[in-house]
Amino acid sequence: MKVLVAVKRVVDYNVKVRVKADGSGVDIANVKMSMNPFDEIAVEEAVRLKEAGKASEIIVVSMGVKQCEETLRTALAMGADRAILVETETELQPLAVAKLLKEIAAKEAPQLMILGKQAIDDDANQTGQMVAALLGWGQGTFASKVDLAAETVNVTREIDGGLETVKLALPAVVTTDLRLNEPRYVKLPNIMAAKKKPLEKVSPADLGVDVTPRLTTLKVAEPAKRSAGIKVASAAELVAKLKNEAKVL
Amino acid sequence: MPRLFDQWRQHSPHYNESHDAWGESVRRFVSREVTPHIDQWEQDGELPRSLHQKAAETGILGMGFPEAYGGISEGLDTFHGIMFSMEMAEAASGGLLAGLMVHSVALKPVIALGSEELKARIAPAVLSGDKIMALAVTEPSGGSDVANLKTRAERVGDHYVVNGSKTFITSGMRADYYTVAVRTGGTGAEGVSLLLIEKDAPGFSRTKLDKMGWHCSDTATLHFDNVRVPVENLIGAEGQAFRGMMKNFNGERLGIATTCCGFAMVALEEALAWAQERTTFGKKLVQHQVVRQKLAEMTREIYASLAWVERCAAAIDAGHENPAEIALLKVQATRMLEYVARESCQILGGAGFMRGVKSERIFRETRPQCIGGGTEEIMLDLAAKQLGYLG
What we know:
The structure holds 2 protein chains of 2 kinds. Chain A has helices spanning 37-51, 68-78, 94-108, 127-135, 188-194, 235-244, and strands at residues 2-6, 9-11, 33-35, 57-64, 82-87, 112-116, 138-148, 152-159, 162-169, 172-176, 199-202. By secondary structure, chain A is α/β, with parallel strands linked by helices. Chain A has a single domain (1-243), classed as Rossmann fold, CATH 3.40.50. In chain A, the strands form 2 sheets. Chain A has a 9-stranded mixed beta sheet with strand order 9-8-7-10-6-1-4-5-11, with helices on both faces. Chain A has a two-stranded antiparallel ribbon with strand order 2-3. In chain A, a hairpin with a 3-residue loop joins strand 7 (138-148) and strand 8 (152-159). The termini of chain A are far apart. By secondary structure, chain B is of the alpha+beta class. Helices cover 51% and strands 15% of the residues of chain B. A 4-stranded mixed beta sheet of chain B has the order 1-4-5-8. In chain B, a hairpin with a 2-residue loop joins strand 9 and strand 10. In chain B, helix 2 (17-34) runs antiparallel to helix 4 (49-58), helix 2 (17-34) runs parallel beside helix 5 and helix 12 (323-348) runs antiparallel to helix 15.
């Protein structure tokens, strides 16, 4: 069974991003970039499925600038078999990514597509759902457990009230939540071996997809600074303040 | 995880995605396998063997050793080693690096000079973390003056009989194999050979030493009392000790210099975080000009040493290893660390004197960096000679 995994190159989670002075976005010119942590969980899950003998081949896909190749190499070092980079300088929004993934899925015919539930840069949480809709496949989002059988997959989802398990017919789309697994640290020999694994490059035009952004960012601003709190002397004063000042009671 | 190093590497010509990926792996190894336990190991006075095995699985122990013996060297360059040292520094423990990595100098002479049989018997067990290996050169009667060492090995039939002692030996209490420098011939360097001695050899004993720092690394004095060593355990030919150990020097010194940069960055980041948090006289420490001047000066010193580390590493990878430059770099980087660790503890104030603070341990452990791998004085003298200053 072929598994397709989508990975995004994002600002590393350790970086404290700064808003550009002109408010046009976040300054990413001089910061460390890494694989989106939720996507790393997706790769790890696919590798575990392969190690368990349930998946036969893992194809990892990334989209964006040339440097996404580095992100793909990391996925190959983790255990993916081959990589596809859809190379473009154009800003990619979730719908464009979903359309590109749909075309790749049509070509590769995977039985399972695994994505991170969202990327830590724009926090959109849309691509997995959109690609499932475009393909007409079932979707199991926010997965904390994935139980793959020959023709179905059981996905345990983290929802407000607890856990929900859905059974999906394959092919299907799964998006990963934080607790699905803990990604491995990659071994040095595998990092070096990943350089020799196949990495194919295509363009959005090759796939016949128009990726022109449909949304325009008007302004990016830092969150307001939190002002200092106060101490109240008694419960009565607290209740009075909640009632009269905060007006939440 | 020195973030400053992430920033430093941006747009650097020296690092590619395999360096980044390896750095990330080591970062995770440290945060999962080391950081939660390091304080306990410091109390225990030694590292567990399971750590060696985990490090082996990750590729840490095998770095730079041939694939045939379980190592990994194809495609690796000196910058993979730099990534390793910088990321391991996050644990702020010199003892960790010493105890875990001493095989990198103990095994190298075996790989360079040893018989095929010896290599096949020793190397895979060491590189898989199953056996621990130590290097024993320094003696109670002298350290840097290696050419005059006194431990004697007399050839008697198919054995050597070894008498003498070694001291300040890292992993000396735990090691299974020892690469020992012994005198087999006459005076001077030509009379010194390397012997592989195993821990169970009758007449061999070891005494634990207590130290100022590096508490998680066991250090020992070794005693050889008529220890019989089979001639097959001779590493290379008689008189080849220097040839074997020369293979270590430059890499070891560059490694120490890199580690100093890593520890300095960790100390700086700790002091910086403190300065941004702590309030005195109505404002954050960092808002006091005198404190941020200190922080900028520390950064300046670190950058200078790190740039030099990269210069030497690039030269090594291009086949132009320069021993004088590496020797001077070692002095530069160790003095830089002494300065930065001191300033960091100064900014941390009372907290910098408390156990549990990284800068406290880094400060306390600056000494062995300035001594091991060649003292400052020997390094400067070597550089002066190699640069032709004697005319």
